[in-house]
Write a structure and sequence with these properties.
alpha/beta
């Protein structure tokens, strides 16, 4: 039995016309003799009647403090509604289909409400229906703990559901259908000549996703990578082959991208950040201790206040890091209470250049800085690793910076 997992996002299911196009992809797969599992997100985006954010806003209009257990029950409803509608749509096209909730599909999680992690998948129930030639439709984003409590998987959880099911079922591939043609070298809303990548490695796309690219959730990539199950990112609304995410080389057309033979695979960005700088030789009334001790005090204070930090730079005389804009006042207040004198620069953006070809190649950072200098963008902070170069710029210069680096590394050709 050749199994294919197909996941459809909310924008692919937001109207009857779009749902029929999505169902058409399932019909095509069944016609190619695949046993198909369909994973669905809630229909539409915030404001649409059954979107997850819409359901959450209904609850928060009553109280901002709904218990996490009950909030998970509420948030799971959108995907169940979407799944029931998809089953009906598939049946109207002549396919036999059945709806299994995440629990019925055997998705077992830990007990963390709102951001649960999948512990294992028990696929026997899904396999039984597939053996009877039924399309199995599973609401994404949900599972149940060992004790039977319903849980949700956090943002991007439907991608994670699809990947976990694909691995557990030994699927030939996992197809992620969305409203774009595939994974691109940069956000096409910023870069006109951004192009679709035919093939991307698991590591590169997971890195891009972690750095702000929103086509697929990094947890889904990491799960698929465990068993080398190929991911295909495709458009619901065209027949474009999209992007294959894999570590092995599929049969691709001549001239297509080659995994591992690009310096830079793509560019992602994270806007709406605040850079916080702390000079370690001022601002503390008592003995500071060593730099590691002071840094431990700073970051422990952030952690205790649930303020997530990123882009950390520690030097003997200064500590730099970023937080999201909405956490900036809280972070500054904590630091002031601890006796520091922080400087906060709001409305910054982190730009990430990702590519396996960065490793051991001299001059990549110099090329980045040349590109920024040529377009008149000041670098506020920078860092690099074997696979990523990061720069922090003012948010108002983010688009110009992305365009300049996309040109400099010739990603549009």
């Amino acid at each position: 039995m050749n199994i294919l997992v197909q996941k459809f996002g909310g924008t692919s299911l937001s109207s009857q016309e779009k749902r029929l196009q999505a169902a058409g992809k399932v019909v095509q797969a069944v016609g190619r003799d695949y046993a198909v599992v369909v994973v669905v997100s809630a229909m539409g985006r915030e404001g649409d009647p059954y979107a997850t954010d819409t359901l959450v806003s209904v609850a928060k209009a009553v109280s901002p403090d709904m218990p996490k257990r009950e909030m998970d029950m509420l948030m799971s409803c959108g995907e169940v509604i979407s799944g029931a509608v998809m089953v009906t749509t598939l049946q109207s096209l002549g396919l036999e289909a059945v709806l299994l909730t995440g629990v019925q599909a055997g998705i077992v999680t830990n007990g963390t409400y709102g951001d649960a992690r999948i512990v294992r998948v028990e696929p026997e129930g899904v396999l039984a229906h597939l053996s009877e030639k039924r399309v199995v439709v599973v609401p994404g984003f949900q599972g149940a703990s060992e004790s039977g409590e319903l849980t949700t998987l956090g943002r991007g959880g439907s991608d994670t559901s699809a990947a976990a099911l694909g691995v557990a079922l030994g699927a030939e591939a996992i197809e992620i259908f969305t409203d774009v043609e595939g994974i691109m070298t940069a956000d096409p809303r910023m870069v006109e000549d951004a192009r679709i990548l035919a093939v991307v490695s698991y590591n590169d796309i997971a890195n891009l996703a972690h750095q702000g690219a929103k086509v697929i959730h990094p947890r889904a990539v990491e799960i698929a990578m465990q068993r080398n199950v190929p991911l295909r990112v495709r458009s619901t609304f065209s027949d474009s082959p999209g992007t294959v995410v894999t570590n092995s080389m599929p049969d691709v057309a001549a001239g297509s991208d080659v995994v591992g033979d690009r310096v830079i695979t793509g560019i992602a960005c994270t806007p709406d950040l605040t850079q916080i700088q702390i000079d370690l030789d001022v601002g503390l009334e008592d003995g500071r201790g060593s730099t590691p001790q002071v840094c431990k005090k700073i970051f422990r204070g952030m952690a205790l206040a649930d303020v997530s930090v990123d882009f950390i730079s520690v030097q003997p005389e200064r500590v730099c890091y970023t937080v999201r804009n909405e956490w900036a006042d809280k972070a500054v207040g904590i630091l002031c209470n601890m006796g520091f004198v922080p400087r906060a620069k709001r409305d910054c953006a982190k730009i990430s250049l990702v590519g396996g070809g960065i490793a051991d190649l001299p001059g990549v950072m110099a090329t980045v800085l040349d590109a920024l200098e040529e377009c008149g963008v000041m670098t506020l902070q920078s860092a690099d690793s074997h696979t990523t170069v990061w720069v922090l710029v003012e948010k108002e210069h983010m688009v110009a910076a992305v365009q300049a680096m996309h040109r400099k590394f010739q990603l549009g050709t």
